[in-house]
Amino acid sequence: MGYQPVFTITPRLLALTEAIAALRERVLAASVRVAWIPQLQRDARVRMAHSSTAIEGNPLTLTEVRAIEEGLEIPGQSSRARREVLNYFAGLRFIEKNAGLKRITHEHILKLHAIIAESVMEQGRAGQYRTIAVRVGRFVPPPANEVSGLMREFLEWWNTRAGGQSPVISSAVLHYRFEEIHPFADGNGRTGRTIALWELYRRGFDSHHIFSVDEFYWSDRPRYYAALDGVRRAGGDLTAGLEYAAEGIEKTLDDVWRRIQTIVVQTGEKTIVLQPKQEKLLRLLENKKGLTPREIWEALGMTRQGAAKLIKPLMEAGLMRRVGGKKTGRYIRSA
Hints:
The protein is mainly α and 335 residues long.
């Protein structure tokens, strides 16, 4: 019979997919008219590489990952952390290059894993299905001797029936099922998230490659792991997991829309790329009459000095300004 995902199209899931469709249309309509698509693409790759590796414990910050993408050395960090990030960049290039593939094979999956897991495997071999039993917390994936057959069914569904579903749904189904099979001894999380993204590329959902869904997962890792575990506890019913994934895509599209409006701000020859906490600050200022310095650093969970470093480039770019006196001053969004 092969693999058959089990889920229900709930009112919430339907509402999310409708909101996603509207946001996607707005984002793509705006992005095709701007000259800075390459900057958005580059920014998305950096955010994906940072988020997906950070979920697995990589200590590099977004700024450090951006520096690696630019070919700079990061003193004081392990070669393994750097290698994980470089591998992920290479994995993203692989799926971008193969976004037009009509059929995905075992060889493609093995190649993707070999790229992502090269020189960073704690057990097993990169580019080969596992031959050992593994455990993920309380979850015990299928025995190693079943992996090849399960992956054959996985690929059959992907190549023949995934197209009958919205790409929002099919990408999430692939992600959850891949993690359930856990076909490799190590590196399944990074590979599974890349496969979900690959489906969005193949289906033309992210035709410009400017979405970074992994950022949503990274923003609340306990919830991400709970979503994966929830599908298992529900006996494989994907309904709640699909709602969670759709929420992530909606949030991602909303973030991209905001970045299209504010992420690339020309100040002479300088281009500003906002960090997540800078984006959060600008969102806070949208709904306020202004925030004091203390309110800002408390809302962002930062020190006074750290908040000041975030605020300075926003002020220089004209995205926010200070009003009032020295003791009573507040920061507001620029008109």
